[in-house]
Amino acid sequence: MTRKREIHLGLFLQGAGHHVSGWRHPHAEAGSENFDLLRRVSRIAEAAKFDMVFLADGLTSGVDAHPSTIARFEPLTLLSALAVVTDKIGLAATASTTYGEPYHTARAFASIDHLSHGRAAWNVVTTSYARTANNFSKAHPEHDERYAVAEEFVDVVRGLWDSWDDDAFIKNKQSGIYADPAKIHVLDHKGKYFSVKGPLNIPRAPQGHPILIQAGSSGPGQDLAARTADVVFTAQQSREEAQAFYKSVKERAVRFGRQPDDLAVMPGFLPVIGRTSREAADKLAELDKWTDTRSAMPLLEERIGHSLADYDIGGPLPDLPISDQLRSRAELLTALARRENLTIRQLALRVAAGRGHHIVLGTPTEIADRMQQWFESHAADGFNVMPPFFPEGLEDFTQMVVPILQERGLFRTEYNGSTLREHLGLARPALSSS
């Protein structure tokens, strides 16, 4: 589809807010298990014409986890509920390729695509944290093998989504034929990691294939995204870093025979908005003031992949081997600490606020300016918006920043279609067997 390039916006939905202390704000509501809140903020994003709402997921918990992730709904169940209380906004969620099965994943997302009339998206993750294996009867694979598994997993899912022609279910009462036997495609996949015969027991999805999202930034992660993804979520701290990533993943897509516009790059973007720049800075300082270092350190250690208990938190981040856990995020945070000469405590507070994503402080105009700069300089095709707390953090963005982007002709004022694929300006895929 050829149309004017516009910013894409996703709402990264964390029920207790993205800042680790966001839930403590006097105006905050909280709870990733609070359906009333999740429904309301999803509808706020839809009223603002966001492309999608996105639910991250993990398969472990603990009292030292981020408040948004200690307790939360299973995301595909939640997407099914949101499908019936929204009309146009895309519905995206995470599902693991390391701790899942292709048939279940293909069936679930195809079902959500039908329930939502073409608004489903799967965020493909390999699951970084080794402790996840404690809840499953398998060992945790190393980094590159996780991506090898993911490559085959995604291929199987896409093949299963093409189990039936679009018009296979003819339901002809006169002939007595419900499904045309000439329009079924049996996958019969036998690979290194999976053996899946098929076909999938659901008609082809309204979008053909639900949208695929990928968030890995390592070399294997970028290759998986460039070959298969429609959207790439990423974390970048500067426009220069974002431009380099954008160029890299788009060039990789071309090497896989795709067009650069076949995938949208959407970095995480945490806006802290004030009537003045000082008010915005004070708002973040207030949230940081409520952050106990003891609650921030586990989040940093999780992303660095090492315990920092033996180091002075008032001193610099030590030289540590890059973890096999979250390789790209560990590299990003290490580079940030070195570039800005941050102490361990200061780095922990940055992670507590945005987990390594780009934090922007300022007036609505300053926030819009930053987004426009990144968009027009090909550092991003859009942004995964991460309010520090809900619902006010999202309301500030939709009521004050979105109108500026619309006035500048950078963001839609109405939806141009009804499916997520149409929101993203992507063509519906043909059957892989055709």
From TrEMBL:
Alphabetical list of Pfam families matching this protein: Bac_luciferase
The organism's place on the tree of life at top rank: Bacteria
SUPFAM superfamilies: Bacterial luciferase-like
Molecular function via GO: monooxygenase activity; oxidoreductase activity, acting on paired donors, with incorporation or reduction of molecular oxygen
Residues binding FMN, per UniProt: D57, T94, H143, Y147, S217, S218
Luciferase-like domain mapped to chain residues: 25-377
Keywords, ordered alphabetically: Flavoprotein, FMN, Monooxygenase, Oxidoreductase
Family note: Belongs to the NtaA/SnaA/DszA monooxygenase family.
Protein's recorded name: Nitrilotriacetate monooxygenase
